[in-house]
Amino acid sequence: MMGYWGWGAGPWLGMWIIPVLVLGLILWLIFRGGYPATHCGERHHRKESAREALDRRYANGEISREDYQRMKQEIGL
Q1: How far apart are CA 15 and CA 56, in angstroms?
Q2: What residues contact 65, with CB distance under 8 A and at least 6 apart?
Q3: Residue 37 — φ and ψ, nearest 5°?
Q4: Measured in whole angstroms, how far is the alpha carbon of residue 4 from the centre of its chain?
Q5: What CA–CA distance (Å, rounded) separates 56 from 71?
Q6: Over the stretch 21-74, which tens digit does the pLDDT of each residue have?
Q7: CA angle 23, 15, 24 (to 5 degrees)
Q8: I need a labelling partner for 10 at 20 to 30 A (CA). Which of 23, 36, 58, 67 fits?
């Protein structure tokens, strides 16, 4: 006679499917980036620090090296 799930698997397989799926869902929620998705599927991003903004502006050529150095000293970096 066949078991609960087919060829002798018995109820063991059925007892482990739901807990494993729930654990997988929990792990996915924890490790997917930590930010909740918005309604558009985009994620919220943390606010850019002053150093990151300054580095970005310098890298994009928006400010000169002298301005970069001066601003970096002004914000205490």
Answers
A1: 52
A2: 58
A3: -75, 145
A4: 39
A5: 13
A6: 899 999 988 888 655 555 555 555 678 888 899 999 999 999 999 999 999 999
A7: 15
A8: 23
Supply 58's token pair. Answer: 């310098």
> Are the beta carbons of 71 and 63 closer than 8 angstroms?
yes
Contacts of 37 (CB under 8 A, 6+ apart): 43
Distance CA 22, CA 17 (A): 9
Conformation bin of residue 20: beta by default, left when phi > 0, alpha when psi is -120 to 50: alpha
Both structure tokens of 8: 């002798």
Average the pLDDT over 5-29 and give the result: 76
Q: At what angle do helices 65-74 and 50-59 cross, to 10 degrees?
A: 180
